[in-house]
Amino acid sequence: MNEKKRTKLFPYNFRLLLLAMLLMHVLMVVASFYPPIISNLGLVPQLPERLYGIFTAPFIHASWGHLTGNSIGLFISGYLASLQTGFKRVTVFIMVMTGVLVWVFGEYGNHIGASGIVMGYYGFLFGTAVFNRNLVGAISFTVLVAVTYYLDFAFLATLLDFSAQTSSSNHIFGFISGLLGAYIFRQSKK
């Protein structure tokens, strides 16, 4: 396969996401030997000394199962989102906005994991389809919902999961952040 085809299959933006996922796996290995990393790098709402968790929490996971679930969601939604214009700035926006909203409004606890970013990509793809009247965005969102449903990761069930071990605020605020990002960074029609 030549370089041009490889670039189309795995765009540069998606390669950056793969590097971030590799970092998540490396940190999980470190956490296997040094478990306090999980509690030390999470986001704890309304605790000023834990604001750094806005940037660190998405890379930390409670278990290999947690990381695997988020990795699958991140791989699928991240790939489709990476095909959209403004992917890098929207990713940073989703991470920061989700973290800020969880820090301000989230329930007390140690919030960790990349699910806010995964749900942010869902929101971004949906918002891109709606705000830009973008056929590729609409198809991407439809494919994302269909594939995750097929893989038994039902979108609405994940978005509205209020179980004790799940950061529902991370899911909801991630989706909202993705919608906001799609709206703020929408392409102007000339």
TrEMBL record:
GO terms for molecular function: serine-type endopeptidase activity. Residues 49-187 form the Peptidase S54 rhomboid domain. Keywords: Membrane, Transmembrane, Transmembrane helix. It holds the Pfam family Rhomboid. SUPFAM superfamilies: Rhomboid-like. The keyword Glycoprotein does not apply. The keyword Thylakoid does not apply. InterPro entries: Peptidase_S54_rhomboid_dom (IPR022764), Rhomboid-like_sf (IPR035952). It is found in: Membrane. It is a multi-pass membrane protein. GO terms for cellular component: membrane. The chain crosses the membrane at residues 12-34, 54-80, 87-106, 112-131, 138-162, 168-185. This is Rhomboid-like protein. It comes from Pseudoalteromonas phenolica. The lineage of its organism: Bacteria, Pseudomonadati, Pseudomonadota, Gammaproteobacteria, Alteromonadales.
